[in-house]
Each structure stands twice: as structure tokens, then as C-alpha cells.
Amino acid sequence: KSCAKLKRYQQAYGRYRKIIAAYPETDVSSTANAELAYLYYGRKKYDDCLAVCGKLLNSPDNRVRGIRGNILLLKAMCLYMKDSGDSANEEFQSIINSVPDKEIMGKALFMLGLQYERDGKKDTLMTGYMSLADSEDLFPNKWKAWAYYLSANAYYDTGRISEAEKIFEYIAEKYPSAPAAKFAGNGLAACKI
């Protein structure tokens, strides 16, 4: 970690690899692999990160089970950053359907919405994505609020201002402390212009 903090990335990669080789199939190795994957992601080395994620996800090591959801999300984020639309969509959907951690599921919901937005899938944001976000108790409120915000933006961008306005108002009323509420307030102001 200290090499990475000092921005000696090549040295950090090498040290992580040495630790992984010296302590195979141990907590130390699993932790080093996970930290290496996050370091690759942070340095925008998405193919390297995907390779380490694949190694971790295919490992029979039970120690990986505790971080599986985070590794799946990291893999999906790499695909998103590489602009691999359909693959990223599938990974985010898979996380929502299979990972029991609500926070990770919420992050996947948000990123799925961003992927739909990037792909220009406004209709999907207004219909199927909205239905998914409506799944009660499936996602934490802060992530639901962001999902509603992305849907409201899709309505706004397609000229359906009254529908967007209703959703922005709903966010402000139902999730006033969520970070998305501030943006919903701005969206609401834009609807009134």
C-alpha cells in the first residue's frame, strides 16, 4: 500500500504479486489480490483489473466469499469504464439479482441507470428501470432517490416535462436528506422555466 500511496505504481504491482505468490490460498493472498484489483482500477488499467477480478471470482477459496459482491461490482465498473454497454448491463443486473448486500445492490442500480443513460436508452429509464427502482425495500433510499432522478431526467430530456416534474417533486418529498434531492430541486426549477 505504501508504494501506491507514494505513487510508485510499478513497484506496488510487483510487491502485490510477490505477496500473492508467497502466500497462496491465504487471507493475505486474497487481500493482496483485492487490493491489486482496486489499484489497477484506480490507475485505469481495466483489463488488468478484470483479470484479477476473474481470478478472485473463480477461486474456490472461501475467504473470497465475504468480498464477492464488491469484486462483482468492481468487475461491472471496469466494464462500464471500458464502455462495454451490454456486458456492463448484464453484470449490474446480475448483482441486483444475486448479491444479498443492499448497499452493493443500490450501487449496481445506480450504475445500471448511468449505463442506460450513456446508451441513450431513455425509454428503458422511464419504464423498466423505474419499475426496478420501485421494488420496495430492495434498495437503500439514497440509491432509490438517484434511480428516480435518472428516470426524471429521461422524462425531461424527452420533453415530458410534467412527468419529470412529478418525479422530481416525489424525490424532494420522499427522500429529502438523500444527495439526489438537491439535484431534484434543480430539476424541478428547470421544469418550471
Task: Please name the defining characteristics of this protein.
elongated, 193 residues, mainly alpha, single chain, 12 helices
Secondary-structure element order, N to C: HHHHHHHHHHHH
What's the average pLDDT? 91
Q: Compute the gyration radius: what is it?
A: 19 Å
Shape: elongated
Sketch the major β-sheet: none
> In terms of structural class, how would the helical and strand content be classed?
mainly alpha
The overall strand count is 0
Q: What is the distance, rounded to the nearest whole angstrom, between the alpha carbons of the first and last residues? A: 51 Å
Helix content: over 70%
Strand-residue proportion: under 5%
What's the tally of helices?
A: 12
Which spans have pLDDT < 50 for at least 5 consecutive residues?
none
What does this molecule look like?
This protein is mainly alpha-helical and 193 residues long. The protein contains 12 helices and no strands. α4 runs antiparallel to α5. The longest helix has 17 residues. The termini are far apart.
Short structural summary:
It contains 12 helices and no strands.
List the helices and strands and how they pair.
Layout (H helix, E strand, L loop, with lengths): L1 H4 L3 H14 L4 H16 L3 H12 L10 H14 L3 H14 L3 H17 L3 H5 L1 H6 L7 H17 L3 H14 L4 H14 L1
Helix pairs in contact: 2-3, 3-4, 4-5, 5-6, 5-7, 6-7, 7-10, 10-11, 10-12, 11-12
